[in-house]
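In full, the data.
>
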Amino acid sequence: MGTLISVNVGRPEPTEYSDPGVTAIGKKPVDGPVEVTAPTERKGVSGLAGDAICDVRHHGGVDQAVYAYAREELDVWAEELGRALPDGVFGENLTTTGLAVSDAVIGERWRIGETLLLEVSATRIPCRTFAGWMEQERWVRTFTDRARPGAYLRVLTPGVIRSGDAITVVHTPEHGVSSADVFRALHSRAPEVLPLMLDLPGLAEGHRESAAKRLGV
């Protein structure tokens, strides 16, 4: 069992390093309850009330409704980078403790609060906006090399959450393919995972299509 230590949402801010010219990657903790619902569009809509999605081509929607990252991994990054990394700094909606989020299995289900049920669906693909926001030289390469991507989740049952809520893993598929495995596969670090992705239950369709393209099928 894990704990939700922070619920984070972002507001649009102007930027020079994002294609739309605005970004909401700099998410901030919210005091009090936050409603989480299932977006109806594939892209462009967050699952969290009050959370903006600026790059509607690549973020949000059903398969990327909620992004989670572990506080433990943020602490490792903070030590490596020599700077404070507050909750939400990686653009995560949920900052957790007690869960190995990057190693969460695709299709794994989390219960948070009284009713919210989430399912691990996708991995993160580091982008130009993330690099510009972090202001770290060769950040995309560094993040890719570490392969600690956190995880995206879809909303199966809507609910209301707040910091301090327990996170209970209620189902873990037996196939064992994690968010980190998919991340490595999509970055040419684990080609043996690509065939598994073609029929992997719960995997985001965009990732499945990417695997098929790389395999030429």
